[in-house]
Amino acid sequence: MNHSAPIIIVGAGHAGGRAALALREQGYAGPLLLIGDEPHLPYERPALSKQLLLDSQPAAACHIGSAEQYLTLAIERLAGVRVAAIQPQSRRIRLHDGRELDYQQLLLATGGRARQASLPGADLAGVQLLRTLDDAAALRPRLQAGQRLVVVGGGFIGLEVAASARQLGCAVTVLEAGDRLAARALPPLISAKLLALHHSRGVEVRLGCQIAAFRGDGSVNAVELADGELLACDTVLVGIGIQPNTELAAAAGLAVGNGIRVDARLRTSDAHIYAVGDACEFPCPVSGQPQRLETWRNAEEQGRHVARSLLGAADAYAALPWFWSDQFDHSLQLAGQLQAAANCVTRALPDDGLLLFYLDAAERLQGACGWGAGNSIARDIKLAELLIRSGKPLPTAALADPASSLKSLLKGVASV
Amino acid sequence: MSHWIAACDVDDIEQEDVLRFDHAGRTYAIYRAPDDQFYATAGTCTHEKVHLADGLVMDHIIECPKHNGRFDYRSGKALGAPVCVNLQTYPVKLEAGRVWIALADA
After folding, report:
1. pLDDT of A414 strictly over 70
2. CATH number listed for the domain at residues A7-113+243-310
3. Can you give the residue ranges of the FAD/NAD(P)-binding domain (chain A) (predicted)?
4. Looking at the complex, does the CB of residue A96 fall below 8 Å from at least one CB of chain B?
5. Exposed e or buried b for every residue in B12-51, given b needs 16+ CB within 10 A?
6. CATH of the domain at B50
7. Are B82 and B59 in contact (CB under 8 A)?
8. With an 8 Å Cβ cutoff, are A382 and B55 in contact?
9. Using the 8-state DSSP alphabet, how is residue A51 labeled?
10. CATH code for A118-240?
């Protein structure tokens, strides 16, 4: 065993960057190497579809830590470097340029890559994806007022870019194959709110829409639908999800399902290799079923948790799933799990806001979803998280009543 | 030098809650603690420019409505990642049923 070898983190995105910083916060003083295939410092992705497009916010505002910080903390960074292979038996990785590096423990934070549409013309100039800072920098100059944007995919990336582009004065059409927006993640009531908002701001949304091809001569100038209709455009954004980067792990013989399989401590099937973030499939703390999440909180919290696991902590990762999406001047947030709920309680809020509470058969809160102007529902969703954690039965009438304070419900629960 | 500005009425904020106050192009957050003490900080999170007044106050902690950024609003101290920059705080006094905060002269 080579104790002088570094802990190596493969993937310098949000989860990888957070794990590196957290290892130092947790007191790890040994060698630490962070390898990423992008030239950038680790960064958070939420602003890529919003502030970076709308405000031309500098990329540095998204960075996790500064170059000086990594230097001061003796976190060695290899940026713009790809890892070609992992050799678990000899605890060694091989870089794309042939260099080999020994590791003491390895963390895979390889993330995902945006899926490209498998359609004719997908390689035309102007058919854009959005996953990285470079993608955002390439998209931004295309969203000038008067430009025509077609968004393929009515999920969060597509809808957030549609909202940003509309606010920048573009003509925007969203094409979604399913019968409602963000159907994989959201309850139908919230999908309907999203659709109404986009319509009211002048985004054309087509549901149940099949695309045949992207047309153009070198550069895309139209999207051809399955029925032959041509939608003229200057730019296409394909937002149809990500593919987790599991190939390195699979080639090394690690267990891989819909992501790199890890246990509750975030350790893979190899005792010296861990995985976090968008690429990993971990046991749901509630059901035990394997799940893979592509959220800011998952990257943040797993990055922090795995630092402790790498240093020997035995506790299970148990953060509650949570995400948000900002579109125009509205925001939605979702916490916990909605799928297994027996009962849904609706609370209508002023200004067309909405809170949905998902309860199990014993009327314990499992999940909550909120929709409203600005960050108006943020506080209620945070309280819902605390109510979920309390695990106590709740009075459904109070949940439905806008005049009933969730905080007093929580305090009532705490004193039971 | 600083000057006192009336931010709101004492009764405008419930116990263990927060109120947004905008003045001269800047935004502040005014807090009423569970023990009825009042505090004031800068109005937006140091991680991203999000209004803290939409966040949740529990005891002496304000949690940013986005992410997990938490601050002790009495001292402005950031309580761990993702926030590492403390919040600016401002002196507060109560007078004639109003909450006043001391702002530095421009």
Report:
1. no
2. 3.50.50.60
3. 7-303
4. no
5. ebeebbbbbbeeeeeebbbbbbeeeebbbbbbbbbbbebb
6. 2.102.10.10
7. no
8. yes
9. H
10. 3.50.50.60
In chain B, the number of structural domains is 1
| Interface membership of A394 toward B (CB under 8 Å) | no
Residue-level pLDDT at A156: 98
Q: What pLDDT, on a 0 to 100 scale, did the predictor assign at position A1?
A: 44
**Angle, CA A309 vertex, CA A87 and CA A5 arms, to 5°:** 40
Q: Inform me whether the pLDDT recorded for A111 exceeds 70.
A: yes
A306 touches chain B (CB under 8 A): no
pLDDT digits (tens, 9 = 90+) for A212-253: 999 999 999 999 999 999 999 999 999 999 999 999 999 999
Q: Which residues of A touch B16 (CB under 8 A)?
A: 407
| B65 in contact with chain A, both atoms CB, cutoff 8 A | yes
User: Measured between beta carbons, which residues in chain B are less than 8 angstroms from residue A47?
Assistant: 48
* C-alpha distance from B65 to closest chain A C-alpha (Å): 5
Domain boundaries, chain A: 7-113+243-310, 118-240, 329-415
pLDDT of residue A139 exceeding 80, the answer is: yes
CATH superfamily of A329-415: FAD/NAD-linked reductase, C-terminal dimerisation domain (3.30.390.30)
Out of B16, B65, B68, the one facing A375 most closely (by C-beta) is: B65
Disruptive mutation site among A325, A375, A383 for chain B (greatest number of B CBs within 10 Å):
A375
- HEC-encoded secondary structure of chain B: CEEEEEEEEHHHCCCCEEEEEEECCEEEEEEECCCCCEEEEECECCCCCCEHHHCEEECCEEECCCCCCEEECCCCEECECCECCCCCEECEEEECCEEEEEEECC
Common-topology check for domains A118-240 and A329-415: no
Average pLDDT estimate for B19-33: 95
Percent of chain A, pLDDT > 70? 98
How many angstroms separate the CA atoms of A309 and A27, rounded? 13
Write the ipTM.
Answer: 0.88
Q: Which of A19, A14, A108 is nearest to A63 (CA)?
A: A14
Domain span holding position B69:
2-104
Mean pLDDT of all residues belonging to chain A = 95
